[in-house]
Design a protein that fits this description.
Layout (H helix, E strand, L loop, with lengths): L33 H5 L13 H12 L10 E7 L3 H10 L2 H7 L4 E8 L1 E2 L2 E4 L3 H18 L3 E5 L4 H8 L5 E10 L9 H4 L11 H4 L10
Antiparallel strand pairs: 1-2, 2-6, 3-4, 5-6
């Protein structure tokens, strides 16, 4: 089990409430796998360490995501919260509003897409798509382990490039906060109302079209 981090910024936590649960079940119209049903992106995280084997399992899931030409264009830079000197630069890449809650996550990840191919000219126009697949594989693995992932576009790409010496061959696309789900009460008030799973989703009829072949004259 993970050990607790400093609780100075989250005084409502104790060792007795690490089993906090919230019903994240979705309003499904048709059956889906439990891991899809239970996936959710909280902002409230427990200040609790992640273990090395957990981290390795998350990235192993990303490793086996599908990709165009097997190019595997995903790249990750991460730091654990218990390693404060490494965690701080990643945290500072986030926009200030995201820093307020992401500072409690057990791990922060910067996800990058490699925009070219090895030994082949041209841009990999599927790089973002493939990175998304890897991120979702990582997220699904996290859900299976009792962890949650909040993916963010709210970060300073240029600052990330400068801090981590990222060249133009790679595009910083998203940041991910990973950890154990916490309590809404730990968040600044403006975020508390958001700490409920969103139930509103488009109906399938709004985004799926079944093509029916037209009869030939």
């Amino acid at each position: 089990m993970g050990r607790s981090l400093s609780l100075a910024d989250a005084p409502i936590f104790s060792k007795d409430n690490y089993n906090y649960k919230m019903n994240t079940s979705k309003q499904l119209e048709y059956p889906v796998h439990e891991l899809i049903d239970q996936r959710w992106s909280p902002r409230a995280f427990q200040p609790r360490e992640l273990e090395t084997h957990q981290v390795r399992s998350l990235f192993e899931a990303a490793r086996w995501a599908p990709s165009s030409y097997n190019a595997q264009p995903w790249r990750y830079i991460y730091a654990l919260n218990q390693s404060s000197d490494a965690f701080k630069p990643l945290l500072e890449c986030l926009f200030p509003a995201n820093q307020l809650w992401a500072k409690h996550a057990g791990m922060l990840i910067l996800a990058l897409a490699k925009m070219g191919f090895d030994g082949k000219e041209g841009i990999n126009r599927h790089a973002y798509y493939d990175l998304g697949a890897a991120n979702y594989a990582l997220t699904t693995q996290a859900t299976s382990m009792g962890l949650h992932v909040h993916q963010m576009g709210g970060f300073d790409q240029q600052k990330a490039r400068e801090l981590f010496n990222i060249n133009e061959d790679f595009d910083p696309v998203a940041m991910l906060a990973v950890g154990y789900k916490g309590y809404p009460e730990q968040l600044p008030e403006k975020f508390r109302a958001l700490e409920q799973p969103k139930k509103d989703r488009m109906r399938q009829e709004e985004f799926v079209t079944r093509f029916m072949q037209q009869p030939q004259d």
